[in-house]
Amino acid sequence: MSERDAMIEVRDLTMGWDDVILQRNARFRVERGEIFVILGGSGCGKSTLMRYLTGLEAPLAGEVLVKGGDPKLQTLGPPRFGVMFQSGALLGSYTVGDNVALPLTEWTDLPRDAVSAIVQAKLRLVGMDHTEGLLPAELSGGMKKRAAIARALALEPDLLFLDEPSAGLDPITAAELDELIIALNRDLGLTVVVVTHDLDSIARIGQRCIMLDRETKSIIAEGDPRRLRDESSDPQVRAFFHRQPKDARS
Fold first, then answer.
1. Which of 54, 72, 79, 233 matches a 20 to 30 Å C-alpha distance to 152?
2. Which one, of 239, 246, 177, 191, lies nearest residue 211 by Cα?
3. What is the reported pTM?
4. 214-240 tens-digit pLDDT
5. Can you state the angle between helices 96-107 and 141-152, rounded to 10 degrees?
């Protein structure tokens, strides 16, 4: 891959707070158009890393380069990205339609009928037709995640960040959400970055991944998650993918 094909390039990133370091000198790339998974055990910094990738945190050292635009058209303008937070983060007093419309009303001057048309199109895209007037409290867990994804797509992003999309969902609903992520990547050409520790979801949607390690404060594996699962000789990687307790590593 050429450097132009990278949607995100992380160079020697050190992240943490004060004297608490979560990762040192992390280096990786997210290629344009792929589903890239950030995985690892609890407390290793997965969700925190997403905050650095989205610009919510400043690196203690190193840099995060997020690129945008269509490289074929030579238009690498400001990156456009959407974020689905772990809980969905829908505003409880807003209807589903108002939640999806929020980025449009805040960041554009589109007329009301255009905003309404976009909201309907985004909800239809995630399988949430006819839910505009519902409140978040009236939605199931899976529907909340879909509504949050629709909101993340409102501004036509190049890049979609998903933080633990299957957390708290039953296996069937989680599998249906995985299929939605695959379809968005395939049909819209979206680059998707997913934070998760759900092994079934990792195997189903992940095209490439990195694994963070809390003890070494480093990336200990990178590549196709299915190959890492089946072929890695690293005891920590094998323990993660095969659900082995720490003292069972060999």
1. 72
2. 239
3. 0.89
4. 999 999 999 999 999 999 999 999 989
5. 20
